[in-house]
Amino acid sequence: MAGVIVYEPDDDTDVEGLPWAITFEASAGEEWASFVCGPYERDDAVRLAEEVLAASRGVTAVVEPLLPVTEAADVLATIAELRDEEEASE
């Protein structure tokens, strides 16, 4: 399924002022390596993603903020949290 997927943060998540990135991925039965572009301001990222999809088929664009993580412990904590959420939903 091709399209633009834009991260919409929870009300309590502050992403104001963060840089944004776009991950372009294959869709519709195509196979090629995904790649990330950025950083952009949010509106510029959404605009670029929409322009690419208007000009090409078989592409999905995921637009999301780049989180300012500086320590491995922060990444590991996020991974553990996501794993817990996944286990809870099973």
Distance between the termini: 25 Å
Share of helix, binned: 25-40%
Extended strand count: 4
Order of helices and strands: EEEHEH
The assembly state of the depicted protein chains is: single chain
Rg on CA atoms, Å: 15 Å
Largest sheet: 4 strands, mixed
Strand content: 25-35%
Instruction: Specify the number of helices.
Output: 2
Q: Which term fits the overall shape?
A: globular
Which secondary-structure class do the elements indicate? Answer: alpha+beta
Residue stretches low in confidence (pLDDT < 50, at least 5 long) are none
What value does the average pLDDT take? Answer: 89
Strand order of the largest sheet: 1-4-2-3
Q: What labels describe this entry?
A:
about 90 residues, 2 helices
